Amino acid sequence: MQQRDNNERRAAALSYKQGFYAPVVVARGTGVAAEAIIACAREAGVYVHESPELVKLLMQVDSDQYIPPELYRAVAEVLVWLQWLESQQK
C-alpha cells in the first residue's frame, strides 16, 4: 500500500499466511525506502494498493508485528477486494 504525503511517498507491506494470527507488517518506509518497497512488490507481481489513511495507520506498526485489531476490518476489505480483482483477471 502506498501514499503520497507532501510529495514524499510512504509505503507499507503486509504478509499473511494461513495459520497466522493476523497479517504482519513486513516492511514500511518513506521516500527512497518506500520507492524500493513499491518496486519490489511490482517486480514480484504483487498489486500495490493506494490507501492514504490505511498507510498512515500501518506506518505506526513496527515491522515484523501483527496489525492491531483496530485495522482488521480495513485490511480484510483490501484483501477481499484483491481476491476479487485476481478472480476477474482469470
- Major beta-sheet overview: 4 strands, antiparallel
Please give the number of β-strands. Answer: 4
User: What is the mean pLDDT?
Assistant: 89
Oligomer: single chain
Question: What is the overall number of helices?
Answer: 3
* Gyration radius, in Å: 13 Å
Distance between the termini: 23 Å
* Strand arrangement in the largest pleated sheet: 1-2-3-4
Contiguous uncertain segments of 5+ residues: none
Q: What share of the residues lie within helices?
A: 40-55%
Beta fraction:
15-25%
What would you call the structural class? alpha+beta
Task: Assign an overall shape.
Answer: globular
Order of helices and strands: EEEHHEH
The gist of it:
This protein is of the alpha+beta class and 90 residues long.
What does this structure look like?
The protein is an alpha+beta fold. Helices cover 41% and strands 23% of the residues. A 4-stranded antiparallel beta sheet has the order 1-2-3-4, sandwiched between helices. The longest helix is centred in the C-terminal third of the chain and has 18 residues, at 72-89.
